[in-house]
């Protein structure tokens, strides 16, 4: 079984604010790739911070360390033919570019900018109440509120989750992967409740991996 129909690995790297929709679309993509018989794995920001990056905070230095660790693992996976999905905020352009350069040694890197305005997220997509706390000054250095987010200048794809439904974003992503030669069929294969479990609601196993069999 190969990760792509030409047999090489690739890395889809989602970047964007917390709550923009990265994990939701990442999970939908995971199921689509699985349904095509491909080996795939997700490195999600929230999940990685419970394991690989446990103990790291949100200073620029700690965020960069987090992203470089994710990039390191992503390169190992990509090198071994896995369709690797990463979805940390990854707010700094220079650090994302460093990771891109590293991963491109082993396979393709597809930068997907998941965009939604801060106000929209704070008003309608803030299940953990983090934006409200950040806006009230109770949490410092929160990305998009009082900490920087540097959008990609030339992403392979930009998804505007204010305008598009998750299904529409997924379709545009599948079309992009098809155009770039990573999947042979851009038609969504997964429907119904298994498609995604809801906004940043990744179900995890004890080891922090995305649960099987959803
Ligand atoms: S990154 O900046 O290092 O890429 P990462 O994606 O791993 O961030 O983690 C972001 C998650 O941490 C958010 O989804 C949110 O739940 C939580 N979080 C806690 N504090 C902050 C903060 N100051 N800024 C951004 N996210 C935070």
The percent of residues in helical segments reads 25-40%
**CA-CA gap between termini:** 21 Å
Instruction: Give the CATH architecture of the domain at 10-114 and 148-179.
Output: 3-Layer(aba) Sandwich
CATH superfamily of the domain at 10-114 and 148-179: P-loop containing nucleotide triphosphate hydrolases
How much beta, percentage-wise? 5-15%
Structural class: alpha/beta
- Name of the level-1 CATH class of the domain at 10-114 and 148-179: Alpha Beta
Q: Enumerate how many helices there are, as a single number.
A: 7
Extract low-pLDDT stretches: 197-214
- At the third CATH level, what is the topology name of the domain at 10-114 and 148-179? Rossmann fold
Given the C-alpha coordinates, what overall shape results?
Answer: globular
Average pLDDT confidence is 89
Radius of gyration of CA atoms, rounded to a whole number: 16 Å
Strand order of the largest sheet: 2-3-1-4-5
Largest sheet: 5 strands, parallel
Descriptors:
about 210 residues; alpha/beta; disordered C terminus; binds adenosine-5'-phosphosulfate
Tell me about this structure:
It contains seven helices and five strands; from the N terminus they run βαβααβαβααβα. It has a domain at about 10-115 and about 150-180: P-loop containing nucleotide triphosphate hydrolases (Rossmann fold, 3-Layer(aba) Sandwich), CATH 3.40.50.300. The two termini are about 20 Å apart. The chain has helices at about 20-35, 45-50, 60-80, 95-105, 120-125, 130-135, 165-180; strands spanning about 10-15, 40-45, 85, 110-115, 155-160. The longest helix is centred in the first third of the chain and has 20 residues, at about 60-80. The chain has about 210 residues and is of the alpha/beta class. α3 packs parallel to α4 (about 95-105). Strands 2-3-1-4-5 form a five-stranded parallel sheet, with helices on both faces. Adenosine-5'-phosphosulfate binds near residues 46, 58, 91 and 147.
